[in-house]
Amino acid sequence: MDAAFTQEQVEMRRTLRAALTTHRGPDQVKAATRGHLGYDGVLWRRLARELGLPGLTVAREHGGAGCGPVELALACEELGRALLPSPFLAGTVLAAPLLTALGTPVQRTALLPRLAAGELTATLVVPGRVLSAVLGLTGPCPAEWAGGGRAGGIQARRTPDGWRLYGEADQVLDGHSAELLLVAARSGGYTRGRTLLFLVPASAPGLVRTRHTALDETRPQGRVELRDTPAELLGAYTGTDRGAAGLAVGASGAAERGAPRGVSAGVPEASEQDVAPVLAGLAAPLGVALAAEAVGAAEQALARTVGHVRTRKQFGRVIGSFQAVRHRLADLYVELAAARSAVYYAAWAGGATASGLALAQAGQALRAVAGQAIQLHGGIGFTWEHDAHLFFKRAASDELLFGPGHRLRGWAAERAGLFVPTEDPLGVVAV
User: Fold this and answer.
1) pTM of this prediction?
2) Residue 151: predicted pLDDT
3) Residues 82 and 226 occupy one common structural domain
């Protein structure tokens, strides 16, 4: 393994850090989260135009940069350092790979260039609270996760006019603002059903979206309700594929008529391709991205804390001169260094197991650094409005959304075959 970054990677990090320098302050972050989008749209378009950030994971033939996991980790570390609220995670890390893996040529041509250019924002809609398991982070994909059997979740119904979706999802990243939704829905009834992904534009009739008051304002979430909403299948048809261009580019005419453009009368049969393995394949890049964000956030929180203890005086001395404080900071630095090593090893080695372990390590480091930052800032640090709480809420929110460290490690160990169930003499299953 060559741990050294290339000149291009070093330049990429320097350029992105410089672009975020004037927008990384807590006041700018808080102001951006309180807008109707939940992020700074002007800054996002600038990052798209000047740096091509939204197209980082999109192939070059579709207008993207075609970068690998190491470049993704570098970018996410800088975004985490700035705690930048943006549609990057939902669109670039989740939606773009799904469009690439499952979309037809027409759908990829219509959607990916716009996503790479920052002209389109997208997100993945998964019902229930099983996002981490569906994406392969904390366990195997649960049975009937999209529809929940006979009722609940999101159901897909095929009509002579096209696909219709009904149901709801309560915890969707950027669910209130994304312009294109990739909705996982159950089709085919209870006994012969299967889960498919569908494209739903923000202008589709019957689509109701509500923004949540999330713990971490820098990672906004929304509730998505689908009430007999027209949709287009993501993937191949056995019939004529006249495609996603109408639905993805705007869907104004199709939405007004109540049927997605490109779906012919009679509704061609959907592809039998199972989307669950494709979703589980996102575990490796998503784990690397989340872990790198956590490392960047922890490094920034630690730097702010070190700056504070160098100036804050107590008993006539700066508190950074006390041995107990130095020991705390040294322990945090060691934990942060271990997390960074785990992240870039996972990016280099690939695989869901390494990325899951890196995410667990990085999440633990961020929680430890953020907690100590609050304590070492003293009384002011315990006020909810203090900047240190932005980092603490990011750590807590990521655990709730993507799984706590013990579940990440447990699933990684199970995948690696470290624990093999055996029968003991009493007939009780032991590990």
Assistant:
1) 0.88
2) 54
3) no
